[in-house]
Amino acid sequence: MTSYTSFHSRPRMLCLIGIGLLSGTFAMMGLECPAAPVIPGGGGDDGGPGTGNSGVTGKYVGSERCSQCHARAHEAWGQTLHAKALSTLEKIGQGSNAACLGCHTIGFGEEGGFVNRATTNVLANVGCESCHGPGRDHVTNVNVVELRPPKSISADVCGKCHTGSHHPTFEQWSESGKALVTDGVWQSFAGGNNLNNCGTCHSGDFRYLAVYNNETVQNDYLKNKTREEMHGITCVICHDPHNRTGNAAFPEEGRDYQLRFRQVLDPVPSNTVEDATNKERFNLCGQCHHSRGRTWADTARGPHHSVQANVYIGEMPVPVDTPPLVLSMNSPHRLVREQCSTCHMYRKDFESEVAPAISGHDFKVNYEGCTGAGCHPSGANALALKQTLENNVKTRLDGIKNRLGDPATWEYTSNGGPNNAGQAALPEAIKKIRFLYHYTISDGSYGMHNPAYVKAMLTRAEDLLTAEGL
Questions:
Q1: Angle, to 10 degrees, between the axis of helix 428-443 and the axis of helix 379-404?
Q2: In this structure, are 141 and 195 located in the same domain?
Q3: Looking at the DSSP assignment, which residues form a beta bridge with residue 215?
């Protein structure tokens, strides 16, 4: 794996070279990383009378020490709620609660970790060493690569604290389809294949390196890895661990969620391949859940199973200079407050051990979200409407498939359909019907994402069948 360096990354590269030379100079001179500056009152949030750092002599050094070389990351982190984690406890009178301090300070309960503000104030809050581990060995041996704090994209890092009945994010994510690389895809990666084609949305390892770090990643990067050794869509793939981004639509007071992309976007529907595949038009979920550009004219494979964002806004890619198969239609669900998150990430605060918090990170539809959005009188009402719509759509899909006849005569080549010559001989109408059929299935919601649009797709397919005498 080699790093990709563009013209625009040269200043950063020069900065890193400078830090490296500085570190080497420190090492040759028998020096270590510079000490953190003296902070009035001892530093950290609520620094003032009664705070100090006389007890910071062990393996933890505090985030201020890291800031001497990692200034930008430290400054960004300072705007997040992690940087105020102990203060949030103190505001509710729990600043000395040992059951909470382990996740609101650095190293509490460990040798050299946080004890109290009077003696270890720079270890207050969730800081660098909460996620990267103790920094003492690194700052005293800056030239030793092996002693640099680790960077991991594993959800286990966040799961140390975002867990339990009050914060069950890790448990619920672990039960989701995001926790592991998709079955069938991971075997391809393990064989050294398709990582650059599918890894952007199926591999946390690839996305983090190639998309977020702009590194060149070879196709065999995950070769011979087990499924458990690979990373799926982990926390840091959707959330930026260091930055308050402002991308959440309606966060609770003081919160931000540190989303890497906008939670809510409202693009104008378009039926061009260029727009349907342009991830910049879509919200956070739509970064992956959008069309890969196949149209009704394709014969080898049907639409990718990722067209949810396109169906949601009522669009479908078609070949250049051809009319849309179905006119674009807005979904009533475009009006819900948090778009995808409203239904797929319903959240509820902790009430009791019998009624624990719901984090929404299993990504399953929770019909109570339909009630909270003000659209339906009850979750039961929303579920009943969904079941009625789904049954109708599935029945019509079965009818279309039956009218098409033997799949060997009309399916895509990859699905057991005709060979290239046979595909070329298929009427355009059959290709359009086939695409409408698979586009509906590939969305996966059976109409829920955009009821009127899906019904219109099925009607168009049925009309084409009738015109063909089928």
A1: 150
A2: no
A3: 3
Cα separations (Å) of 258 from 76, 242, 262, 264, 440?
A: 11, 8, 10, 14, 33
**143 CB-near residues (< 8 Å, 6+ apart):** 23, 24, 26, 27
Quote the crossing angle between the two packed helices 428-443 and 451-467, to the nearest 10°: 160
Interhelix angle 379-404/451-467, nearest 10 degrees: 20
Six-digit token pair at 218? 């070879």
What CA–CA distance (Å, rounded) separates 419 from 458?
A: 26
Say what the pLDDT of residue 32 is. 57
Cα–Cα distances in angstroms (integers) from residue 405 to residues 20, 288, 417, 419, 470, in the given order: 67, 33, 12, 17, 9
Strand partners, 315: none
Q: Are residues 143 and 291 in the same domain?
A: no
* Separation between Cα atoms, residue 322 and residue 310, nearest integer Å: 18
Model confidence over 204-239: pLDDT tens digits? 999 999 999 999 999 999 999 999 999 999 999 999
Asked whether residue 442 is domain-assigned, the answer is: yes
- Asked if 138 and 192 sit in the same domain, the reply is no
Q: Please list the residues that pair with 105 across neighbouring strands.
A: 124
Domain count, the chain: 3
Residue 284: give the domain boundaries: 273-336+378-467
pLDDT value at position 286? 98
